[in-house]
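>> received
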Amino acid sequence: MGCGFGDFLKYDPQNFTGIDTNKDALKFCRDKNYDVKLASVENLPFPDKAFDAIVALQVIEHLNPEQAYKMFVEAVRVLKNGGEIILSTEMATKHIWDTFSHTRPYSPRSIVKILSSHKGGEQETFEKFENLEIIGIYYHGHFFKNLIVNVLSHLIANLTRFNRRNYTII
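>> returned
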């Protein structure tokens, strides 16, 4: 989802399919012979149970809560039984606002709420996903070119709240 200019697709272009709403990005990907489609995460142009995994890297922060919920509805629809959703997004730091299209930061706790909310007394009115469970949340620190400093940055981000830049949730 949200393949952009194919940074992830390039790792296995024969087996990965990308979607995006950015026509320039899709043209770039098509010129590289990547399998891409013009589509929104809220309305995926694929049949039910078509994929083993859905990868949404740096996508959800561009969506409002209703769109984010619809993204998960569609992801669940096109996932095979036992499939996985891998989602990565920025933490609520000053970096989230570096792009005007970022609608809002989503904390890991807010993703849990989208996936497990019940209709009722709370402000959230999403239906609970019965067939999704969170396997893990992994935090990433700031990127450094020095390998040792970079590894330490990510380790510190996972062990403490200090230095967290983004996270991946599976």
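>> The beta strands are 17-20, 35-38, 51-57, 79-90, 137-140, 166-169.
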